[in-house]
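Anyone up for a design puzzle?
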């Protein structure tokens, strides 16, 4: 039976190489590996990595963890295979999956591609013979491309690495500060559909860890966490921290460094392209009324301003006039689905507003109305999840 270590949080990912080196050095474990033909599978968590450290930091630390584990494995004469825990949207490791794998380069072992396909993404990508063939061909081509085509775009030089490391650190700090905001968890609890995910029965596990009545960030699971932001049309895990990182470079007159990185690195281009997808699915007009909320108005503005900042710099760096300008097929697909999604979410927001109003007064009539609006929220959740073609 194989033993498969799992690394998810930023701290986990940064320690991964050292952990595997120590594991390989254990005589009992080495004997086990010899019985398994010196093959080691390692799992990396994209969903929880992004939830913990933000989009850019998670993806960069996953990349570095893969490099370090590859190097350590080669040193010990062990063949390593990476199993990626990826969700549907970019915020959970989805997006342009084949481009991600094609961008990894020779410093990461990639003789196999193993990844999770979750929720509505299964039927979306593999529900028909045509879409299944297309997506499998994309993954197969990505794997072959890494083995056969050795492009300079896939090799990160020291300068590029330093730039990515610095951007990652700044975005991680911005995202960590955002997570630590006193309104962060209350906002999700009171203003989003987070607590309704448990009623949809779409997850393989409970929507949160632990039995505590008080909601804590650490207890949140990735699907309802990312899903709640998606239902708000705010998609925070797919972009938050990017804008502040780019702005910091711009203030130091170093934006050209990022533009050069974008031109020369397929990995960085793929990351920013996926982030553009997340931003293309944001629509802050849906929750514009929150701007005037006494408790959460300032917090809403904080998110909105970062989305504008991220969009501004993504366009500047990529040289595009609008998001996904160079990916018209993805852009058209998102636009088509938005026509279905936005009316559902408008109904959902109306129901959430009415529930809050009804909670202020008591009475059997109000309880019945509240129950009806609760059902409306859950039904709109189902509809949006299916229309968006992924559960988060």
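Challenge accepted. My sequence:
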């Amino acid at each position: 039976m194989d033993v498969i270590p799992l690394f998810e949080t930023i701290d986990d990912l940064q320690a991964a190489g050292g952990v595997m080196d120590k594991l390989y050095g254990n005589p009992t474990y080495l004997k086990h590996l010899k019985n398994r033909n010196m093959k080691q599978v390692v799992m990396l968590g994209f969903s929880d990595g992004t939830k913990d450290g933000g989009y850019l930091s998670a993806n960069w630390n996953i990349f570095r963890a893969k490099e370090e584990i590859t190097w350590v494995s080669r040193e010990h004469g062990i063949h390593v295979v990476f199993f990626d825990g990826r969700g549907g949207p970019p915020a959970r490791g989805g997006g342009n999956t084949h481009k991600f794998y094609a961008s990894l380069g020779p410093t990461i072992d990639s003789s196999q591609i193993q990844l999770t396909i979750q929720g509505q993404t299964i039927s979306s990508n593999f529900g028909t013979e045509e879409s299944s063939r297309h997506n499998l061909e994309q993954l197969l081509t990505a794997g072959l491309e890494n083995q056969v085509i050795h492009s300079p775009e896939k090799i990160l030089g020291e300068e590029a690495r330093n730039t990515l490391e610095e951007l990652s650190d700044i975005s991680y700090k911005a995202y960590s500060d955002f997570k630590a905001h006193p309104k962060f968890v209350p906002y999700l609890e009171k203003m989003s559909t987070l607590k309704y995910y448990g009623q949809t029965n779409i997850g393989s596990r409970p929507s949160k860890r632990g039995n505590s009545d008080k909601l804590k960030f650490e207890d949140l699971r990735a699907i309802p966490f990312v899903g709640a932001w998606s239902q708000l049309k705010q998609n925070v895990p797919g972009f938050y921290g990017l804008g502040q990182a780019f702005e910091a470079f711009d203030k130091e007159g170093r934006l050209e460094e990022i533009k050069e990185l974008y031109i020369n690195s397929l990995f960085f281009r793929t990351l920013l392209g996926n982030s553009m997808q997340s931003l293309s699915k944001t629509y802050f007009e849906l929750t514009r009324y929150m701007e005037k909320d006494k408790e959460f108005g300032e917090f809403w503005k904080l998110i909105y301003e970062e989305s504008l900042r991220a969009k501004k710099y993504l366009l500047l760096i990529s040289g595009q006039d609008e998001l996904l300008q160079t990916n018209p097929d993805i852009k058209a697909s998102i636009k088509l689905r938005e026509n279905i999604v936005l009316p559902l979410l408008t109904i959902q927001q109306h129901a959430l507003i009415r529930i809050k109003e009804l909670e202020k007064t008591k009475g059997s009539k109000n309880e019945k109305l509240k129950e009806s609006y609760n059902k409306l929220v859950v039904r709109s959740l189902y509809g949006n999840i299916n229309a968006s073609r992924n559960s988060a």
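A detail worth pointing out: The chain has two domains: 6-155, 159-388.
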